[in-house]
């Protein structure tokens, strides 16, 4: 097996895991989270804000899972660089989406300070795609 094939398989596994988790988390956000937040006695305005924040996290999570899938299919560039970019997209999911999930589930806005780290990681990964020629 060529190194390129192995790296593409690893990225495909990352895409599959991130995609499956994104769907699960999104389903929880749509079906379980509203009642969970309401049962905590949060004001309605806070519940709506937290639901929106969770939705943003889930949406960007799924978008970047699809990006990972596309990256696995790209037959161009160094497999080392492609793998590095893939892990940067995963790190972006963890920091950006993960911090929003934590913020919402704990109702602790301090987790919002982590979110821009994920966004910056994604931006860097997107820009590194230019080097895959």
UniProtKB/TrEMBL annotation:
Domain of life (superkingdom): Bacteria
Entry keyword set: Membrane, Transmembrane, Transmembrane helix
Coiled-coil region(s): none
Protein's UniProt keywords contain Ligase: no
Membrane topology classification: Multi-pass membrane protein
Entry GO terms, CC: plasma membrane
Entry's transmembrane regions: 12-33, 58-78, 85-105, 111-130
Pfam families the record matches: DUF423
Localization, UniProt: Membrane
Family the UniProt entry places it in: Belongs to the UPF0382 family.
Name assigned to this protein: DUF423 domain-containing protein
Source species of the chain: Novipirellula aureliae
Phylogenetic placement of the source organism: Bacteria, Pseudomonadati, Planctomycetota, Planctomycetia, Pirellulales
